[in-house]
Amino acid sequence: MSRLIVIIILLLSSVSFTYAGIPVNAGTRGNSFLRIETAARASGMAGAFMSLSGDIACIDWNVAGLANLSYPQFITSYGSWFADTYYGNLGFCVPVTKTGRVGLSYTYLDYGNLNYVSGIDPSSGLPLVTGTFGAKDMNFVLAYAQNMNFLRR
Questions:
Q1: Residue 90 CB neighbours (<10 A)
Q2: Is the alpha carbon torsion for 59, 63, 68, 70 positive or negative?
Q3: Rg for the chain, CA atoms, rounded
Q4: pLDDT of residue 1
Q5: What is the pLDDT of residues 8-31, one digit of tens each?
Q6: Using the 8-state DSSP alphabet, how is residue 122 labeled?
Q7: pTM of the full predicted structure?
Q8: How many Cα atoms are found within 13 Å in the side-chain-facing hemisphere of 117?
Q9: How far apart are CA 104 and CA 120, in angstroms?
């Protein structure tokens, strides 16, 4: 009986450790711009891109997927959003050995010019704008992936 309980506990714990997705509260505190989908294919799949391989977009989802690239790939995307917000992504991956791939990626989000408010004007009730400032987020990725052919024997 105790052996059965140990087996059940091991099975349940292994299932909880194998979760490979984006947690529900990911990106709620910092770096939320990393949740923006950079490729049309990944966006079209509603973010279910973790298990695919052989596409340059894997550099942002699952770096191990780069190991199946058979030729150099390049990706770029740019978006102009509301309120002077701009988003861009640039990536490149190239085979360097028979089984190894190296990739570079740069992602940015520019929030544009934001007003600095120092208080509220008591006579009009409107905010007192005393200047502007800008904010940006950037992410650089250097990735290496390699097929582990010795595991296929």
A1: 15
A2: positive
A3: 22
A4: 67
A5: 776 666 554 444 555 566 555 666
A6: T
A7: 0.68
A8: 8
A9: 46
Lookup result for tokens 């990725």: 141
The DSSP string of 9-60 is HHHHHHHHHT--S--TTTTSSS-GGGGS--SHHHHHTTT--TT--SSTTHHH
Q: Which residue has the tokens 């990536």?
A: 91
The pLDDT tens digits for 26-72 are 555 666 777 777 777 777 777 677 777 778 888 888 888 888 888 99
Q: Which two tokens stand for residue 33?
A: 């711009």
> What is the DSSP code string of 67-90?
GG--S-EEEEEEEE-STT-EEEEE
Mean pLDDT is lowest, of 41-55, 69-83, 119-133, 135-149, for 41-55
Angle at 139 between CA 138 and CA 140, to 5 degrees: 125
Q: Which of 9, 24, 30 is nearest to 135 (CA)?
A: 30
Q: Say if CB 53 and CB 67 are below 8 A apart.
A: yes
